[in-house]
Specification:
The protein has helices at about 175-185, 190-200, 210-220, and strands at about 1-5, 10, 15-20, 25-30, 35-40, 45-50, 55-60, 65-70, 75-85, 90-100, 105-115, 120-125, 135-145, 150-160, 165-170. With about 220 residues, it is of the alpha/beta class.
């Protein structure tokens, strides 16, 4: 694992796994012969601009209002995972621009709003005329806890017929049927809630230290 404190720009021309702590606006360039995995821990309200010319998986964890601009510049596949935890008013804006034919994007937004949190997720994907063969997908899900509220705006701006664009979204509380099912297995309601929350936010291929960081932020939600 490469641990890097970002100054103002970063270049990645080798495949591998990178973890970045970001506290200011940053420009990131990804151009590699193999897959790049990039883990972002954004500490402040910043703007992140990413230019991708190779396959990449990008993970962002934040409790702040942020903007990520992802430009896909070649025939590659880029997955962007945004994980937000809010106990205040924040806006996460994720923009994906397909600037190459036959490029693929998958945008996954997961959020938890708790206490007095007010979260807004704006997911924008752009396919301009002439960008044929593009495949663009969005999945956005937020959970509201206590007095937390959230809004999802999934936007697909498509000006090319020879392309595929899809989105799905959900916002609300956990479904009581899942809590009830776990309770029937002898699990207390509090523990069932904790399991659902952790399962909702966690992804399978998070590195251990990044998973630990996510656990610490989740503890603020579940209070333990």
């Amino acid at each position: 694992m490469n641990n890097i404190i970002i100054d103002s720009s970063a270049n990645y021309n080798k495949g591998g796994v990178y973890k970045l702590t970001i506290d200011k606006d940053i420009n990131i360039k990804i151009e590699s012969d193999s897959l790049v995995k990039l883990y972002l821990n954004i500490l402040k309200n910043v703007r992140v601009n990413i230019n991708a010319k190779s396959d990449a998986k990008i993970y962002n964890l934040t409790t702040e209002g942020i903007v990520i601009n992802l430009n896909i510049l070649d025939k590659v596949e880029v997955n962007l995972y945004n994980m937000s935890i809010a106990d205040k008013e924040i806006v996460n804006t994720l923009n994906i621009y397909h600037k190459a034919k036959n490029s693929i994007s998958h945008l996954y937004c997961y959020g938890v709003s708790y206490n007095e949190g007010n979260m807004k997720i704006v997911a924008n994907s752009y396919i301009n005329k002439g960008m044929t063969g593009v495949n663009c997908n969005q999945v956005s899900r937020t959970v509201n806890i206590n007095n937390g509220t959230s809004v999802i705006e999934p936007n697909l701006y498509v000006d090319e017929f020879d392309s595929v664009a899809n989105h799905s979204s959900y916002t609300g509380p956990f479904d009581d049927k899942y809590l009830f099912y776990l309770e029937t297995k002898g699990i207390s309601r509090d523990k069932a809630f904790n399991l659902l929350l952790k399962g909702f936010m966690k992804l399978d291929d998070l590195p251990k230290d990044f998973e630990k960081l996510l656990d610490e932020k989740i503890k603020n939600v579940i209070g333990r």
